[in-house]
Amino acid sequence: MFYAPWCSRCKKLFPVLEELGVKYQNHSTVTVAKIDITANDIQLMYLDRYPFFRLFPAGSQQAVLYKGEHTVRGLSDFLERQIQSRAEDEDKLMSGEQSEVTGGEEVLAKEEEAVPIMKKKLAAQKLPALENVTQLGEPPAQTAAAEEEKATKDEL
Questions:
Q1: Counting CB atoms within 10 angstroms of each CB, which of 14, 54, 62, 124 has the fewest?
Q2: Signal sequence span per UniProt (predicted)?
């Protein structure tokens, strides 16, 4: 819940949020929080009324607006529907990924049968010429020292 400390309606909802927090305290995917908008830099839209509720699903950039009753039951029903919806979406995603993996493996197997890897020839890749390139060389003093050392070794 986003709230303003001077808002009497917000203060009346603190016990509701406390009870909701106790109900979901052992739930691994739900965190119930009270956020004082005057003490935090909140950059959400619709900050004209307090309190307001948002659900921030894990892994999503979209917040879900809550427009239901400001009761433990109303908030709890909303959370349960969202949890169920997310679980169903994950199940669909997982079953879709499994069929894609299986289908992808079949395609790879067919490609390997059609063109053995050892017979494939890769096209030569030409790299574009670089412009405005500065050639780095050894500093002159180091080059002179290296040449002198080489000449000394050759004499021995």
A1: 124
A2: none
